[in-house]
Amino acid sequence: MNKVFLFLLFIPFLGFTQTVNKVDLNGLKQGVWKKTFDNGNLRYKGQFKNNNPEGIFMYYYDSGELQAEKEFFHSGEAAATHIFYKNGNLKAAGLYVNELKDSTWHYFSVDSVLMMSEQYQKGKLNGVTKTYYYTGELYEIKNWTQGVENGSWIQYFIKGRTKMETLINQGVREGKVIHYFPSGKVYCNGSYFADDRSGIWEYFTEEGVSDTIINYNE
Predict the structure, then answer these.
(1) Eight-class DSSP state of 50
(2) DSSP letter string, 66-120
(3) Domain span at residue 154?
(4) The whole model's pTM is what?
(5) Does residue 14 surpass a pLDDT of 90?
(6) How far apart are CA 192 and CA 129, in angstroms?
């Protein structure tokens, strides 16, 4: 009976002495890891398996608020990530693959309004980026190919009408561009060549009357 009693007392003691920040004989991180700031507050906590982060890691500001949450999978190669403001509202969310941004990322204002979305591939912008007004309406759409702006570029007025539309060719403005009044009528149109204004540019009044013509090739 006494032996059983002593064994039962020993079980909770083992629970309180669980090792953290453990490295095995091969120098690989295993189990629960925690790090702190110089002020003693927790910097992060999570779990490793064979030196790879596994499951959910929590990261904190030095003042104690939650800064980010990462859920690791694929042997730690990928991490679904949520980043927070100090007030607890979501600041950004997206995926890391091999510590590089990948797929779609969303960014929010401190008041939880979507401000931007971006598409990545292996850390480079690849696909569509959208930027929004602080009121939530769409402001701009751009297209990217492997980190270089490439394709249509459109801007909008806050009420939704098109403000400007043009094309970008491998980071350089080329081809026709049109600017509009908030009413939807054309303000001016012209062309770019090698990122410079080229040829005839025509400007209009809000009533649609041609007002000014400039030839940039002269």
Answers:
(1) T
(2) EEEEEEEETTTTEEEEEEE-TTS-EEEEEEEETTEEEEEEEEE-TTS-EEEEEEE
(3) 113-218
(4) 0.86
(5) no
(6) 22
